[in-house]
Amino acid sequence: MSFDSLGLQADLLRAVATQRYARPTPIQLQAIPEILAGHDLLAGAQTGTGKTAAFVLPLLQRLSEKGHPQRHPRALILTPTRELAAQVGERVHAYGLHLPLRSAIVFGGVGMQPQVNQLQRGVDVLIATPGRLLDHAGRRTVDLSRVEILVLDEADRMLDMGFIHDIRRIIQLLPERRQNLLFSATYSDDIRRLADGLLKRPKLIEVARRNTAAETVVQAAHPVDKARKRDLLAHLFRREGWHQVLVFTRTKAGANRLVEHLGREGITAAAIHGNKSQSARTRALDDFKRGSVRALVATDIAARGLDIVDLPQVVNFELPNVAEDYVHRIGRTGRAGAGGKALSLVSHDERGLLQGIQRLLRREIALDPVVGFEPSLVPPESEPDRSLGGRRDSRGPSRPARKPAAAAASPAGKRPWRGGDRRGRGATP
């Protein structure tokens, strides 16, 4: 089936042809007709399956059919991060290239006045992060009383980031009668509760089992001691000849340290996280896309919202504390049906996190040690594991454990780590 069969007008089809989209993805096939018909929508699909086009294309058509551009926003798209807002804004511009509609993007980390100037010139489609939008509303530089269509993009991520109260405040500024669209990579009970209070007789679309990774992404993991992770990563860059790799860490400081280490190894790298200015984040992403930087090291702020064409490799330098974030991280590769690879470096203290990810995905991720970087034996069982909620002895270093009877029969008196955790608990931040 082609885009021609979805009821899109000629100007939008011209823009789609320019993007060289061969045919609609499943989420686009199902969502576009429902949105054109004016229905509220609760839609879920794996990340990288074309959700943005699924709501932007029909949204633009509905606005263009209702008259000429207006001064105040008629469509509002809320996103959790600056990167995702910028990405959606780019798509709105690209798809609406032949339409007389104006769009604007507002997010934090940059000056307010350029955004105010753009809003004063008139906007049909406003793409925004919740906090900065409320700043504009508080200064009366934006009027949301004429919004006809509200889109919550990556709604689950917005809830994870604590934006629920901001979202509710924004909803109070909107007119009662409007079309509401919730798009989310995963469904959760919180998302369903939000949908119940927001959507009116919505159409439900779910094109893949919730919380699943794209089948086109090959997943693997290397067990390794935490202290040797940086050296292993540099070794893999050399061995595999990687030229474009998105690497995820848990913390901003960890991302900075990893960039410095890779630089000393002769591997160009840049970091992108919340402590970076927006201009620095944009520059790092642009350098990565151009190929002048081989490794882009990011925290989970970039797990959604980064759209890098044909990104071949994602590496989880550290596993995420929330299993669902693993799905979003590796969803940066294997997008729109393309192939990709996702590799995780798993240390002893992350074994519970790995098991949680495997439960979520309902599949096992093979553990394949790298020669020369095999993990050491399991720490004594009586030694508290702080990452799993254990308690460190305040009197000094943890004392060695008494050898279990089964282990005493081996020469080393210890068992090799094989991954997994009988306790099934994840690590704490």
From TrEMBL:
Residues 383-396, 418-429 have a biased composition (Basic and acidic residues). It catalyses: ATP + H2O = ADP + phosphate + H(+). It holds the Pfam family DEAD. The keyword ATP-binding applies. A motif (Q motif) lies at residues 1-29. Residues 397-414 have a biased composition (Low complexity). It comes from the Bacteria. It is an enzyme of class 3 (hydrolase). Keywords: ATP-binding, Cytoplasm, Helicase, Hydrolase, Nucleotide-binding. Its EC number is 3.6.4.13. Residues 231-378 form the Helicase C-terminal domain. The keyword ATP-binding applies. Gene3D superfamilies: P-loop containing nucleotide triphosphate hydrolases. PANTHER family: ATP-DEPENDENT RNA HELICASE RHLE, ATP-DEPENDENT RNA HELICASE RHLE-RELATED. This is DEAD-box ATP-dependent RNA helicase RhpA. It comes from Thiocapsa marina 5811.
